[in-house]
Structure formats: structure tokens, C-alpha cells
Amino acid sequence: MGGTSLITGVEDAVASYMAGLLPPEAGLHARLRAETARMPRAVMQVSREQGRFMQLLLRVCGARRTIEIGVFTGYSTLVTAEALPEDGRVIACDVSEEWTSIARRYWQEAGVAHKIDLRIAPALQTLDALLAAGEAESFDFAFIDADKGNHAAYYERCLQLLRPGGLIALDNALWHGRVADPSNREADTLSLDALNRFVATDLRVDASLIACGDGLHLARKR
Fold first, then answer.
1. How far apart are CA 217 and CA 222, in angstroms?
2. 15 to each of 8, 30, 47, 110, how far by Cα in Å?
3. What is the CA radius of gyration of the chain?
4. H helices present in the chain, as ranges
5. In a structure prediction context, what are the per-residue pLDDT tens digits for the chain, which is 222 residues long?
6. In angstroms, how far is the first alpha carbon of the chain from the final one?
7. DSSP assignment of 167-191, as one string?
8. pLDDT of residue 6
9. What is the DSSP letter of 24?
10. Torsion sign across C-alpha atoms 57, 63, 68, 73
11. Which residues face 139 on adjacent strands?
């Protein structure tokens, strides 16, 4: 197979064709993407086609309350908030004031800041606090895109917080193809591969791993 760029595991020509079918990107979105692209860790930003797909998922499942673990500069949070109704809410978890300060500017400009509850703290603390507060089975959607070694722990908490029929989207499930390389023994690769295999056979969910961005593993709570 040829090289890949936009979508892990998909040839450049096919990925470019798919991207060409997307509607024009809003100016604010494009500015946030451009500002993030100048940062040393720009690769952490979700792709344009992934943001579009997430909005479709949110609207299909009628999401009103969502959780996001890993905000970075806020592109995924922005598209999520835009897809929610006016009274919708995102609990957004991150540990970086620096990165999320960029996010806040764009959320404010987009007019969606009132939908976003940003919590600067280790995400496991935030998730455990939500569970302790009686929030189990009260969320519709969760997007997990943070430190890969903790994805399995985030998955378990989010599964408790989701209502039956709610959806979890696990990002970087293909990890730039490294999960398919048996010679790759890096800790993050092994963690993501183990989680992929666990989710695929987890009887509590209906799951599907798709090639979108760097791979999204979708799990619908039964």
C-alpha cells in the first residue's frame, strides 16, 4: 500500500479524495487549525474529517451531555459543542492551562463557551468525582484522546458514566499503524493494542474499529 497522510492505513490519493468531499472549513476552524499547526505537538490535533465525523455521531445519537478527555487546543471540543443543542454541555478534561488557553479564545469567539465546562485536573480525578456525585449513566457520548497508557482506565470510567445506548470514541486506535506491527514493543503501542482487543470482545458494548483520522474505536454501551 502507498503512503498515508490524512487517514492512517488509507492511501494518500484516497484520503485526499475523501477530504475533497468535505464542505469548506469555517474560517474560525481553519484559524485554530493553522495556529495549532505551528506548535511543537501539532500532531495531537484531530483531523478535519474526524471532527466532521464526530459531529455526525453526536447528532445521530442526539447527544446533550458529553465528556472529552484530552482537549489540547480545543478543536475537538469546539466541533462537539457546535453539534450539541443550546442547553448541551461538554465536561472537558485536561491538565494544561497553556494549551487550553488557546482553546478558550476560540470557544468564546465561536459562541459556544457556555456549553463547555473545562476542568483542569487529572482526568481520572474528574471522572471519579462525577461518579461519586451520582452522575453514572447520565452522559450520551465520550471522546477519549489523552495519555495512551490511561486509555483503558478512562474507558472503564466513561462506560459507567454513559447511559445505555451511549457512545465512546477512542482516538488513536491505529496509532499510525504501529498497533499492527508485532515488532513494536513501545509501551503506548502495547497499551492501545491491548485496549483494542479488549473492547472488540467486551460484552458490555457493541464495538467497531474504523479508519478515520488515526483510527477511532467506537463502543456503544448495551
1. 16
2. 9, 19, 12, 28
3. 17
4. 12-20, 27-37, 48-60, 75-83, 97-110, 123-132, 151-161, 187-200
5. 233 346 888 888 998 898 899 998 889 999 999 999 999 888 889 988 999 999 999 999 999 999 999 999 999 999 999 999 999 999 999 999 999 999 999 999 999 999 999 999 999 999 999 999 999 999 999 999 999 999 999 999 999 999 999 999 999 999 999 999 999 999 999 999 999 999 999 999 999 999 999 999 999 999
6. 36
7. EEEEETSSGGGGGG-TT---HHHHH
8. 65
9. P
10. positive
11. 162
CB 148 within 8 A of CB 191: yes
Side chain identity at residue 143, one-letter code: F
| Three-state SS letters, 86-107 | CCCEEEEEECCHHHHHHHHHHH
68-93: burial string, b at 16+ Cβ within 10 Å, e else: bbbbbbbbbbbbbbbbbeeebbbbbb
Other C-beta atoms closer than 10 Å to the C-beta of 105 total 16
Three-state SS at 108: helix
Q: Vertex 70, ends 172 and 36: CA angle to 5°?
A: 85
The residue to which cell 472488540 is assigned = 200
Helices 48-60 and 75-83: angle between axes, nearest 10 degrees:
30
Grid coordinates representing 96? Answer: 494544561
Q: How far apart are CA 165 and CA 185, in angstroms?
A: 35
User: Mapping DSSP to helix (H, G, I), strand (E, B) and coil, where does residue 44 land?
Assistant: helix
pLDDT of residue 170: 98
Strand-pair partners of 218: 169, 208
